[in-house]
Every structure is written in C-alpha cells, then in structure tokens.
Amino acid sequence: MVMLVMGLIALLGTSSGRSPGSLSWPAWAAGQAKEFQMTFPLGIPADLWELMIPEDNPMTEAKVALGKALYFDTRLSADNTVSCATCHDPRRAFTDGKPVSEGVGGKKGARNAPTILNAMFNEEQFWDGRAKTLEDQAKQPLVNPVEMAMPSHEAVVAKLKQIPEYVKRFREVFGGTDPITIDHIVQAIAAFERTQLSGDAPFDRFIAGDEKAISAAAKRGWELFKGKARCITCHEFNPSSPFFTDFKYHNIGVGMKATKNFETLARRVQQLAERGELTAAELDKLSLAEGFSELGRFLVTRQPKDVGAFKTPPLRDVALTGPYMHDGSMKTLREVIEFYNKGGEPNPNLDGGIIELHLTEQEMNDLEAFLRTLTSTYARALARGEITIAPGK
Ligand code: HEC
Ligand code: HEC
Predict the structure, then answer these.
(1) Mind listing the domains of the chain with CATH numbers?
(2) Contact 300, 129 (CB under 8 A)
C-alpha cells in the first residue's frame, strides 16, 4: 500500500501526465514481513534514497505513521505548546517563516529553521553539522531550553509512557517489554522525515527534457547560476545529487558584522572542550545562543578557519523558505542575490569563492526567476492548502 502523503504526490504527478518512480522492498528486520513502498517525486533518485536508510532503522508503514504522530504532537514539549511542526510547518515548506525560531514560552534561538524536506540526504544535520543523522538531530530540540524544553530525555520517555495510545503503538512498531525509549522515539520521527521529499519542481521537468517547463528568464538564470554568478560551485547540482549543495561549510560573511568578540567566544568554547564539558546538549545550547551561534562550524571542529562558516543550504523550495541564511537576516531572494553580487561581507575567513559578481539588474532578475523554479509540487500544494498533512494512522 502506498502511503497517503506520497500517494497524493503520485496523484498530482500522474494527473499532469508524469509518472514518478516508485520503489518497494522487503523490510530488513526479522519479523517485519510487510513491504514498505515509496513513491518518488521527479528528480529524486530512488537508489540514493534507499542507500540513505540506516540498516538499524528500517522503514515500515506503522513506524512512519507513529513518527508522524510524534512530529505533530505538542506534548513532546515542556508546556505542551510546541511540536516539531511548530518550527517545521508543512504549510511553510516545513519552516516557520521567522528570522529565528521561537520555542516554549516564545523563547528565541539564534538560528533560522531549515526545511526538513530532503533533510535525510544531508551528510550532516544543522547549520554547523553538529549531528550526523536525523536520529541524532531529533534528540536535541526535545531538551533544548529555547525549543521544546523538556528537562531530559528520560522525562520525554516518562511522559509518553503516560499516554496509552503511544504505549500501544510503540509496542506494535518496536515490540519488546519496554518499547518506549528515546532511541525508538527518534527512530520513528526520522522514519517519518525520510518520507518527506522535495522534487517534481518546474526545474526538474526542464532537466527531464520539457523545454516549456520554465521561462526564458529562468533559463538565463540557470546559465548564470552555473557560470558568471558561480553559485553552483557551492550549491552543487547533478542528477545523482540534485540538492543544490556541496554539504560543505563556507564563510560567506553573513554574521560577521553582528558579533565582534569572536576570539573571546572561541576561547570559551575551547575551555569547555578541554574540561570535557562540551557535551552534545551543551553544544546544542551554544549553537542557539546569541554570539556563540555565529561561530558556526567552529563549534564542531574548533578550527579557527571555521569561524563563521555554515553549511551550504540546499535550495529546493527556496521561494517558500524565507527569511534566509543561518540567522534569517535576509528577507528576500533579491536581498540574497545583491549580497552575493557585492562579494559577500569581507572578513578574514571569507571563502575564496565569494567575489564581486558585477551582475546587471536583468541578470539578478533572471537568477531570481531561476530560483523560483525550484518549488516542488508537494510544498506548493501544502502552502496553498490544496493538500494537508496531519497526524493519524
Ligand atoms: C523552536 C523551533 C524548533 C523546534 C520545536 C524544532 N526545530 Fe528543528 N530546527 C530548528 C532550528 C532553528 C534549526 C537549525 C538549528 C541549527 O542549525 O543550529 C533546526 C534544525 C533541524 C534539522 C536540520 C536540518 C538541516 O538542514 O540541517 C532537522 C532535520 C530538524 N530541525 C528536525 C526537527 C525535529 C524532528 C523536531 C522535533 C523533534 C524539531 N526539528 C523541532 C527549529 C526547531
Ligand atoms: C562559497 C560558497 C557559496 C557560493 C559561491 C554561493 N553560496 Fe549561497 N550559500 C552558501 C552558504 C554557506 C550559505 C549559508 C550562509 C549562512 O547562513 O551564513 C548560503 C546561503 C544561500 C541562500 C539562503 C538559503 C536559505 O535557505 O537560507 C541562498 C538563496 C543562496 N545561498 C543562493 C546562492 C546564489 C544565488 C549564489 C550565486 C549568486 C550562491 N548562493 C553562491 C554558500 C555559497
């Protein structure tokens, strides 16, 4: 049976004459006889998807449904007001539309919420790559004091154990005598996230050979993206990695004006590390704390060259995911393009690939027209309310 959400994509796809690929295979784990079937939007390679599913967290329909329920459940937060979907809202291409996210009690972090669409393909998670997998990632917001603010993972587990429906569903999915554990919670959430894909954008149809799928301006923009504007050197695109990112970290200067005392902050992080106090939870707190947040990739590597470097974000659905950059400091795509045109923000760590571009008005318009062809059928339909996704079986 095809899952409902993806089934809808398939419907949308076929109704306009396209037939996205699909894939099914027997679940690896013993005792899970049911097959899991996925339908893929145009442009997203099924074999890569399959490769990215961890062997210790096979996909099953019941697990995905459970993960979806957890994803939308505000009871995973300290005061029952915040869920994953609060900050990664399907109606906003799984972002929150705010410069920086607000968690429990309206507390603000220091970073902009990225989309979870295609997040499963990220080599590392978060703007600074501090989590390796979706499972690792999902553990952090639950206990971050400015996000879901639960006192501990044990507290999350204890809370869910009070809810009979979850006791039943965890047992169905994971079996055993004590099925509700933090690892099972994040495994289910990650399995749900792995069904949330972005593809089948006008640009994908263009790449697949439909010359009419995008405008002449967007075609010129694509040529600029690959050529004069040099965007593709970091926002890599090729059929086997069609995500518009190299998954690497670069300093393009975004936050370099905001904070002056980088040295002091960096020294403080170094000290914490030396004292063995830079735990995953501590690192997560620092990442969302003003000032420290701007250290970027340095927080993970503690290499001076990484101060102010952030992960190249993927660009699919970018027309729907503003405001932009790790700190949400740019409101519009035009603002982003103008920032690149002037050569970013000069600072000692500025990436060598960022130089003045000398783009004309027309060229900047074309580049923006191209970026606007990256909106997926799925995210657009959700944003327009043509389809909805909500928990339930
Ligand atoms: C209060 C808002 C908020 C909540 C609640 C929240 N997130 Fe996030 N999420 C963010 C922000 C902000 C970031 C970026 C932080 C950073 O990179 O340092 C992020 C990053 C991520 C990423 C990494 C994406 C990437 O491209 O690197 C994933 C995946 C994700 N969140 C999933 C989840 C899941 C699953 C939950 C629920 C368990 C959740 N988030 C809860 C705000 C939130
Ligand atoms: C040297 C590598 C590099 C080059 C070249 C580059 N980018 Fe980026 N891009 C990045 C990084 C890194 C970020 C995130 C920076 C941050 O938040 O501090 C980013 C962010 C963005 C964002 C914001 C996306 C979001 O979700 O917030 C857009 C849009 C974007 N780039 C488009 C472009 C365009 C268009 C070009 C060409 C004119 C380009 N980039 C060239 C590395 C690059």
Answers:
(1) 56-193 (1.10.760.10), 202-253+311-375 (1.10.760.10), 262-307 (no CATH)
(2) yes
